[in-house]
Amino acid sequence: MTRVTQTRGMFGMPLGLALFAFGSYSPQEVAAFEVFGMDAEVSGYVRNHAAINLEDKKVPQNVEGEEIGGQGQLSMNRYQGLLNFQLDGDNVRAFVSTRYATETKTPYLKKLERASKKTIVKATPTSAPVPVLSALGPVCQGEGALPSRNCAPGLIQTDLGGEFLDDYYDEGLVLREAYADFTGVNRLFLRLGRQQVVWGETDFFRITDIVHGYDQRWRSFFELENEELRKPSTLANLIVEVPELAGNLQLIYKPGGIDGSENYGNELDLAGGRYAGQPNWGVNITENIAPYNYHGAAGDVDDDEYGFRWSGTFGDVGYSLLFYRGLIQDPIANCRRTLDAGSTVQGTTVPFAVDINPACQPYKEVPEGDGLGGELIYARQSNYGGTFNYYWMFADAVLRGEFLYQPNRPWNYGTEVPITIPTYMPQLPVAGAIPLGWGTIDVPGLAGVIEKDTVTYMIGADKTFDLMRWLGTDRGSLATIQLIDQWIVDYDEDDDIVEVLSYGQGRDEHTVFLTASLLLNYRYDTILPSLAGGVNLNGADAFLIPAVTFVFGDHWRLAFEADLFFQNNTKKIFGPPENKTHVLGTTGDSSVFLSRLSYHF
Predict the structure, then answer these.
(1) Which backbone phi and psi does 93 adopt, to 5 degrees?
(2) What is the pLDDT of residues 464-494, one digit of tens each?
(3) Which terminus of the chain, N or C, has less C-beta within 10 A?
(4) CA-angle at 506, arms to 501 and 512, nearest 5°
(5) Are 354 and 136 spatial neighbours (Cβ–Cβ below 8 Å)?
(6) How far apart are CA 546 and CA 21, in angstroms?
(7) Quick one: three-class SS letters along 236-253?
(8) Do the beta carbons of residue 141 and residue 132 sit within 8 Å?
């Protein structure tokens, strides 16, 4: 067996925030040999992720039970291995990538699982209870509490739990990619099989990277290699070179029903785990409140998806134009208005019809399944977009941009939506517990879905600065800055669109972020400090990510990172409405310190 040195970089080689979370890649050795006269390579890594909470997880003011806390505790201890095998022949190339991942159930994760199985909510209001007559009988309403049917003091226990460690974090052995490349026909490149197609930049603010969803349950959006979180798909990928027009045409066809449902759309931590939006640690939304429906009238994973991208140059400008028709990446909620008599929710039969959400207007169909609030769906969406990059000699900088137009994009609306909790909820077996308890929780966004033309765009710049004299670096330091805006074109404040599902902050016409980053280089690129940060200009919530990567030879990498979040508002009460939490506000009390040790081969 011989060894050759080969540089491995990220898919698409983006210059966004992802590049700076742990520094940059360096050359590494790849095992090369021959199989039946064809060139073969084996590569991969063995890796450990570890994360320590820097803040306590505050228990919502009206929830009792075990305090979550967590500051200084280990929230992630993940072991992961990747094995790639590549075989090159005449005009054909085969590639297979497998990944194995498992996690240690730390004491902190055990505490989250216990909390998710038993959420106990105070029924005693913080203000004088006011009985209100309804079809359910008298319902007690009071600020800052989960109301009870008879306005008596006591507790109601909700069973919202699930084994999210086993379901979401312990991945086991999975096939990441398996495809074949064919190059035997002049000007044509064809890739068939399970693969990843990257359009545009691939950091947290992905605008035109829309072919695949992302799994952000085990690791939030700051993972360095975007391909670790992206969900591969089985598809046909054809590229036609057109040198006469200084470009190429890429055609994509993704047949429905081949990949499993879990391979579609973005998945956030909605199970109450370590990356759950505050204050929902221990609250499993997808288990009981709004499970996923992958076969809805608005969008079905069994339907085919397709698109194209033209990439070329015009003078000194590199550009691309694209279209994609498929499931939208971010799920929306289809609300449930009524529990019919005899229907089953959370495994319990409802004895009589209950109008639990009078404000609800279901989207294209009435939800099925066991979700008390409804269901999460991925709607089918047409997308039109493009990118550009240009070297501006006067500033010695690269200017770049992306845009995406989505006609009739669905949004959830309703900043105050009270939902009745019916009697089948388990009762706490202690003195003072409320028999046949009824209550309401407020779930913003569950009034329905409204379609709005939406434009998302990014303008950014990359520039290398000479900081060697000031900071003692070995060479120039790369800095980036970018402005991201999501614009609802036909915006109307009366539409009451929510910015984040289950939070009461209304969406503005423009949702704007400003981000910047800086990468330094020391000891011949073996010590790589970096700093990245961003701010939501709507709510002034911000994040800051100092990081450093140490490179030891061709094999070892050790990285440290702190994800620091700064919020103007956090949701402190479970149930009643609030109207100040923007998208970055959901990261409240979630700052962490991470380490990543990797051995590459």
Answers:
(1) -145, 135
(2) 999 999 999 999 999 999 999 999 999 999 9
(3) N
(4) 95
(5) yes
(6) 8
(7) EEEEEEEHHHCEEEEEEE
(8) yes
Q: Which helix (H) or strand (E) holds 112?
A: helix 107-117
Rg (alpha carbons) of the chain, rounded to whole number: 26
Residue whose token pair is 């021959």: 34
Cβ partners under 8 Å of residue 512, min gap 6: 483, 484, 485, 486, 536, 537, 538
The model's pLDDT over 530-577, given as tens digits with 9 standing for 90+, comes to: 999 999 999 889 999 999 999 999 999 999 999 999 988 766 555 566
Spatial distance between the Cα atoms of 10 and 227, rounded to a whole number of angstroms: 8
Cα 277 off chain centre by: 11
As given in the structure block, the two tokens for residue 187 are 């000007």
pTM given for the model: 0.87
DSSP string of 354-380, one letter each residue:
EE--TT-B-SSS---SS-SSEEEE--E
Q: Which two tokens stand for residue 448?
A: 């329905």
Query: Of 294, 441, 270, which Cα lies nearest the Cα of 372?
Result: 441
d(CA 367, CA 448): 12
The domain of 163 spans 2-600
Contact residues for 64 (Cβ-Cβ < 8 A; gap 6+): 120, 121, 122, 155
Residues 4, 32: contact at Cβ < 8 Å?
yes
Structure tokens given for 299: 């969008």
**316: which residues sit within 8 A by CB, 6+ positions away?**
390, 391
Kindly state the tokens that stand for 121.
């909510």
Q: How far apart are CA 587 and CA 568, in angstroms?
A: 11
- The total of structural domains in the chain comes to 1
